[in-house]
Amino acid sequence: MESVLGRYRNLIILAGVLFLQVIGLAVQVKRIGSEEKDTRLIRIWVVGAVAPFERAVVWVQNSASGVWHNYFYLRGVRAENRQLKEQIEQMRLEQVRLSEDAAQARRLQNLLAFKEQFVSKTVAAQVIGSGGSDLSRIVYIDKGEQDGLKRDMAVITSDGIVGKVLQVFRTPSVSQVLLISDQSSGVGAILEKSRLQGVLRGTANGEVVLERVMSDEQVQSGETVLTSGGDQIFPKGLPVGTVTRVGSGKDLFLTIKVKPAANLSKLEEVLVLVEKQERQAVAEDKGRVRAADILAQRLPSVPDKPAADPNAKPVGAVGTVSPGTSVKPGTTPLASPATKAATSPTRPAGAVTTGTAPVTSAPKPKATTTASGPKTAGTADLQPSITEQKPPITQVAEPTPQQPADDSPH
Amino acid sequence: MPITYTSGEQVEVYRFSIPVTIGVPVLALFLQAFVPLRFPRFAVYVDLPLLVTIFFAISRRSPIAGLFTGAVIGLAQDMIGHNPIGIYGIAKTVVGYMASSLGVRLDVENAGARLLVTLAFYLVHSAVYFTVARGLVNMTQQWSWGHGILAALVNGILGVFLYFLLDRFKQRT
Hints:
The structure holds 2 protein chains of 2 kinds. Chain A contains 7 helices and 15 strands. By secondary structure, chain A is of the alpha+beta class.
């Protein structure tokens, strides 16, 4: 017996070591989906051994790069500065336009009582390491539990989403981020134009595909993919990537290959969304705004007229709104020139017809009319703004020789 | 004097100092985790911990030392990633055992032999990893001969240079 054991000692030890590892694997696989607390401790040892080296190398690299780029290599900075200033001017103009659009969107969201997630706090982190294998598409970042990071927080760059926090360590203060290209990753996604929803997954060879889109749907290459918010990790509307290829997949679904918006193979700095707020979008406090206001703003306008005497008799029927009269937005002069004239403090403003009873709303910058019809969320929203009920007020756009009204009976 | 004959009695056995025994595998793991940040293809084609395992196993020429070296390095590599711990561990344990068993019987001190041995063990490692990942852990894996042979060649060439570098740390018993 002893001779047999001695003869096959190496093989027996090999079998024993392999058996122990197989048992260990089996235990982990059985508990997959749990918090992985069993393997956490031994992972910390290795991460603790490797992370300081990575931090040190990244620090030295960044310092050397900073000294070179900030003190020595300044060629072309002046020209670049000039270009950037021009760009800032252009972007300011663009910002004005976008802020108007954003304000309008917020107002409309408010009308619809639309709830969405807002990113309220992020933590910037530096990528210091990777999983070291094409079968484990993860990266390590230099922020951990002490910085407020938790499991399942979204990680993004300015270009698009990167992944989610998989494990957080206290000492060393690092975290493991699972990239969206890993095959165990899953992100709720939506196609920007067609609004089709699917699940974004990584493949074994590191590609990213959008699954669960029915094969009878039309998806175009080049279409932008956004987060849908359905995974409860990424807020809705963050850029994910663009569709590069559409093919028929398994069963009834398409296989849509997506090129990630963020360059996952060359990540340096990332943002971790440490706090999301779910709140109702709030309209800017410029008084109650209705859908018709927005339409009115978009119509062509003419210069404001001088303030008129509030006691002046109405001339003509232009812009007169009778009780119960419905006026289609955009078809009445009230919505454009006369609307502007009504903003004068010397005349009553804000005549509104809801289609049922004429009421006067609180003073508003612009008087508009709302179309009659079925009550919508927007119409319902009007109710609190009603301050008093008065007989219908006639809004007058006084035609002047310089500014004749189109619909004047003259 | 390098030994060129294949007799077990004549093959020289080496040992390494403790700093080298610990430092080289840690450095290999660090590079394996860090270099792909700058060169993403590195992780696809190069497996530095495997090369270190093969080197130590062949040099020590002890199957037990080889399998434990492979197990420790493999498990550490598993811990860097996010997959269940033990997949690389099993693959490198097998490679460590086979490499040290081979080192007892064959001379693997010249560049050609080292290239072939590394190439072959890379394929063995990939096959074991594939089997364990697919069979035990149910991971989605795709076997590609083209990728496997190319990566084996890359590791073989890199291994030749690496082994000559690591030869400096050898200590005769």
